[in-house]
Design goal:
heterodimer, A: alpha/beta, Rossmann fold, 2 domains, four-stranded parallel sheet, 13 helices, B: Rossmann fold, six-stranded parallel sheet, four-stranded mixed sheet, 23 helices
Amino acid sequence: MRVGLFVTCLADLMRPSVAFAAVKLLEDAGCTVEVPAAQTCCGQPALNSGDSVDARQIAMQVITAFEGFDAVVGPSGSCMGTLRHDYPALFSGTSAEDAAWRVRAEDLSRRSHELTSFLVDVLKVSALAARYDGTATYHDSCAGLRELGIKRQPRQLLAGVQGLKLIEMEGTEECCGFGGTFCVKYPEISTKMVDDKIAHVQASGATTLLGGDLGCLLNIAGRMKRQGIAVRVLHTAEVLAGMGAAPAIGEAQGEGGTA
Amino acid sequence: MHAPTNTFPQRVTVALHDKRLQAALNHASGGFVAKRAAQVAALPEYEALRERAREVKEHVLANLDTYLERYEAEVTRQGGHVHWASTAEEAREIILGICKRVGAKTITKGKSMVSEEIGLNDALEAAGHKVVETDLGEYIIQLAHEPPSHIIVPAVHKTRAQVADLFDTAHRPLGYTKHLTEVSEMVNEARQVLRRHYFEADVGITGGNFLVAETGSSIIVTNEGNGDLTQTLARVHIVTSGIERVVPTLDDATTFLRLLARSATGQETETYTTVSTGPRREGDHDGPREYHVVLVDNGRSKMLGGPFREMLRCIRCGACLNHCPVYTAVGGHAYGWVYPGPMGSVLTPLINGIDTAYDLPNACTLNGRCQTVCPVKIPLPGLLREIRRQQFERGLTHWPVKLALQSWAWVAKRAPLYHLLMGIGIPLMHRLGRRRGVLRWLPLAAGWTDTRDLPAPQGQTFQQAWKQRKGGGS
């Protein structure tokens, strides 16, 4: 299967290892992975701030870049939810141009998948050759959970990782307070929310926090680093690809190692 | 109540530093969520019921004129009167007119969010009427001279100790000299005080959870029975309700009653469900001599034809408030008007103008939990985003946000330039944060770095690294 990797802007800029982990998982599952250079971001900052003109143009760029792939896969429920649910609605006008773009947007929507959902639901991957020694808890990122139904898939894959003990925390489905531009526009509320989330992580006793969306993970890790809380934060894909021993999010080079 | 103002950020700061408020919110929020979840889990037909409720509401909204006319005809046939108010001011004038005509001294009130919306209490008191709220929560905030902070539990922001002090001050002159701190004792005392007012009331004003077109009935639900006493013992009963609250039949009403109690308070059913049809008839032992319904539009008919029509399905259960991480962090008063939380963040700008409550639709992470618990499936995050779109279109978006956004978008639409710029900037940021693994400060990013470190980029961008991997043939 020929897969186009939707890198996501955060993986591209902040944590390429997440995208490399995604590539490894897809290649191990027998896919041919390509990375169109004409992609930047899914356009959520514009879309969620009410700038529908820019959001449309960015959507057109993504739709064009990923034409022809059997599947479009990204390591984020949030971005893939946008491709899947929001793009078609951006072309709901009555013009012929909108009608044409809507067909293309719906075609992309049908081919778009979040990484763990693609591995489990489409490729039926059951066994992975990964190892991670530690106790982890999983944060359900909102968009993946509620827009795409990502809940069972990452847990099913993580259950196959040797040495990993997965425990559930309280309030795992509660928002961490990231919310894209929300976290910088309303930092006080955002900080209160991330503190609540961190309290749940700590109460669970887990020494590693995993999740499927880098936005949430940068927010939680960034707050924990500021507070001096030593919980390792990693993207699920990194652990599944056996790359969990590298420095975790916010750790300096050389700080790596399993918890 | 006063019109909303753009003071959300200031109110948030106050709310987050108010220790008593935080204690009250922590105490309340978990309970409703757990109780609702248990009720939903115990009802196999919950999802079917939700879909049925959505369908009924959509059908009513598509034929609203027909059902409202039918309702009016039935109310009239039963001896009642329907008054149409297109604005809050008109609604106040109609109610003031009735109260003046019947020579009302004391007016008792059951809980009604529409009466809050139209600022009724202030108007009645200014006209010289004595107004007594009979819902315990409303009674508490009336004593405290505060607006409600939740549409179902208006005094949820008050701790027990604060309520004890309020009762002590208000009830001492009435002969209740003991300072009570036990909930059951406090409730008992309030009931005794309120009972006097029921009997002296000339007019009883209640809301209307549902208006039934086929019978001309209004339905209210309460857990205290205060609504029944308010509407049965006064000479005149006035119902205030939004025009969207009409349902076709009593049978339809039961669909909503089953959803309302479960979604609102996590009960199978509220303690009291009361159906009122017209005034007292020949041979009735009790009931009001006059029965009036004031149907309030106040912006609702404008919503009917546009992108916000789905908001008119709302049955005011408050589930979206209880499950909203922003509401549970800051409480209802931060929202600045009578409707807080997700439903309020849609309704407040729509009723008062999208320029009056800029922050409300923006102060949301779009986490979507409200939509998943809404008993009538209102796509609240989508509606909030649509308000943001209209704000942006009308040039209301704050300029620093707009500038940052449009600069970013300009580059993001030009992939080669984007990769070139990021390919320079990101490795630079990496070098700045390499030693610690994080950046503790960044220009123009105080919103992030005041309370959080920013994990440093790993090195090159993925696109750079990928190009090298491909080029190197690995």
